Amino acid sequence: MNNRTKITLSFFISLIISLNVQATSRDNSLEHLLDFSNPKLEKVKNAYADNDPNKALSLLLRHFRERQDIIHPTINHWQRGPVVVTPLDQSMAANGLKRLLFVHKGYGYFDYGADINWSLWPVKDNEVRFQLHRMYWWIPMAKAYWNTGDEAYVKEWKFQFRDWIADNPLVDTEVDDDPQKVTLDEDYNHRYPWRSLEVSRRLQDQAKLFNFFLSSAHFDEGFLADFLINYHRHAARLHEHYSPGKNHLLFQAMRMFIASIMFPEFKHSKQWQQRAIAILHREIDKQINNDGYHYEISPNYHVASIEIFLKAYNFAKVNGLADLFNNHYLHKVNRMIRANIVMSFPDLSVPMFGDAKWRSFDYMLSRYRTWAALFPQDKVLEYFASGFKSGQPPEFLSEALTTTGLYSFRNGWQPNSTVLLMRNGIPGGAYHSQPDNGTFELWHNGSNLMPDPGAFMYSGEEVIMKQRRWFRQSKIHNTLTLDDKRINIDAKPLFWRVTDKLESLVVENQSYPDLKHRRSIFFIEKRFFVILDEAIGAATGAVKVRHFVKEGQVSVNPERHLLRTDFAGSNLSIAAVAVSEMSSEHELSRVSYHYGKAKQRSGISLTVNKTNDYSARLISVLMPFDGPSEDLDVQLINAQFVDDRVTFTLTINQQQYQLGYQLDGDNSVGSAKN
C-alpha cells in the first residue's frame, strides 16, 4: 500500500481520490451523511432529490461560506485580520511547501520525499510515527496563506490532504483483538495513522484549517466533498474507538465535542456531542483526585487536562451552549488550577516529575491568561495572568495535596522566594509516572537548584527504550534506594503541619517488600530544609540517598559529606550526617529539560550499609544562598528513635535545632532553638 509507485499528475491523483472515496465510503456518500432535517440545508436536500449532486455541492459550499452562527474561538473565515505567525511557523510553512515536514519538536525536519512517503520512519522513535499523522505544519501553512493570500499554500495543502487519504485508507479491522489475523499493513494502519489520539488531533486541527482555507477559490466543490467525507470518517471512527482512559480519552472527547459543534450539518453530530459531553463529565471526577490533581501525577499532563476541560467549555460558551456543562464541572476545573498553583515555582514553571518537561514563563503565562478569562472574578488567577501586576496572590504558602501525594513548601510567591515541591505519589500514575517516590525539586531566588531528571524519550525501538529506561531509574532521582534497585509505588502521608517557625511533613513509601522509606522534611524558619530519611524493615544492603543539582560547577567533599554549588546567582550547600557509619561520593547524572535533549549534572550520593533489621537513618541539611554558597558545619548531637516517635538535635553552623515527629498523637513535631 505505502510502497507502491505513485502517479503524481494532479488529474490522476484526483481520479484516485475519487475512486478511493467511493470505495471506502460505499453508502456513506456525502448525501447520506448530512442532516436534512436542518432547514438551512433545504436547498441542498432538494438538489440531491433532483439527482443534481453538482448543484447540491455548490449550494453546500455557499452554505458554509455564508454561515456565521457556528463560531470557532480562534479563527473564523468571515473575520479577516492578520494572525500571529512566529518564526517557527514561518519555517514550518516554508518547508511544508517543499515537503520537508516538521513532525516532532525533538527532531525538527525530515524529508519524506516529493511524493510523501507517509510510512517513512526516519528515527526509531514511535512519537515520530505518531506525530507525523498530526500534520503540525498544516496550520502554519494556513496562517501563512491567511496573512499573505498566497494560493500556493492552499494548493499544496490540498495535495498533501488527498495524498494522505490515498495512502492511509481506514481499514476496518480490530487489530488489538487478534493481531495474528491482520497483515502488517493493517497493523500499521491502526496503530499509527488511525490511532485514536491522532484521529482526534486531526478532528481538532482540520476544523481550524476549514476556516483558514474556506474562502480560497481552490477550496472548490470537489474538495469540499473530499474534506467532509474524510472528516465524518474520522468522527465516526473515534466515536466507536475511544481510548479506555487517561489523558488520551480526555483529548479525544474534547476534540469530538469540537467536531460536533463545528459541523452540526452531519446527522450524527448530536450523538457524537452527547457521548463526548458524558465522557468529560464522568472523567473529570474519575481522573481528577479530590485535591484537584490529575491522577497520572505528571505536571505537564495536569496542565494539559485543565486545557482540555476548559477548551471544551469555551467552545460551548462562544456558541451559546455553556449550559451543557454543569457547575460542578467548572468548580472542579477551578480546583485543578489551584492545585497547579500549589505545585508551581515563582516563574510559573512546574516540576519535571514523571514525563513532564520544562515549560517557559511565557508558555505558562499564556495558559493562565486563558484560564483567567473564563474565571474573571478570580483575583488569584488574575494575579498570575497579569504577570503579578494585579489581582492578589494566594492566601496560603505551603500546602499539601494529600490524596495525590504532592507537597509544597514556600516562603513567598516572588521570584526570590524559596520553594520545595515534593512527590510521594499514589499508585496508578502508570505510563507517565516514574518510580521516584520521595523525590523533590528545590527553587531559590530565581533558580531551580535541584530539578528532577525529566523523561528524555517516550517509546520506540530498543535504542529509544534504553534511553527512556535510563531516565526512569529510581537511583537518578532525589530519593532513597536499596542496592540501586527500582522502588515500588505504595505511598501514604503520615504527618503535615505548618507553623510560623517550623513546617513539617512525614510521608512513607513501601519501596521494597521488606523495606519502607519514611521521609521527613522540616522547613526551618522558612529559610532552609532538614530531611530525615529512614529505611525501615528487615531488608539488608546498600541504602543510598542521592541529592542531584542542576548542571554547572559543583564541588563535593566525600570525607565531610558536603556538596556546594558555584553557580552564577543563587546557590546551595548540602551537608549530611547519619546515625551509623556513612560514606559519600560525587556522582554524575543527567537532566532533560526538553524531549530528546539532556545535560550532564552531578550530585552527592550518601550510603549506609544496612546489615540487619535495624533502621538505617540519614539526615541531610539543604541550605540555599542568595550568592556564593558556604560550607556547612553540621553535627548530630543526640537522637532517639522509638517506634513512631523521633527526636534529634542538630547543630548547624553553631546554632542548635531540635527536631522530630510523633505519629501516635497530635503533638508538636519539633522546634528550632539557638
Structure description:
The protein has 674 residues and is an alpha+beta fold. Helix content is 35%, strand content 23%. The strands form five sheets. An eight-stranded antiparallel beta sheet has the order 9-10-11-12-19-16-15-14, with no helix packed on it. It has a five-stranded antiparallel beta sheet with strand order 3-4-5-6-7, with no helix packed on it. It has a four-stranded antiparallel beta sheet with strand order 8-13-18-17, with no helix packed on it. Strand 3 (399-401) and strand 4 (406-410) form a beta hairpin. It is elongated, with a radius of gyration of 29 Å.
Features:
about 35% helix, alpha+beta, about 675 residues, eight-stranded antiparallel β-sheet, 18 helices, five-stranded antiparallel β-sheet, elongated
Brief description of this entry?
The chain has 18 helices and 23 strands. By secondary structure, it is of the alpha+beta class.
Strand content: 15-25%
Helix run count:
18
Helix content: 25-40%
Query: Low-confidence parts lasting 5 or more residues at pLDDT below 50?
Result: 1-28, 173-185, 667-674
Mean pLDDT: 91
The count of β-strands is 23
Radius of gyration, in Å, reads: 29 Å
Q: Class by helix and strand content?
A: alpha+beta
The end-to-end distance, rounded to whole angstroms, is 77 Å
Most strands sheet: 8 strands, antiparallel
Strand order of the largest sheet: 9-10-11-12-19-16-15-14
- Dominant shape: elongated
Q: From the structure provided, what is the oligomeric state, counting identical versus distinct chains?
A: single chain
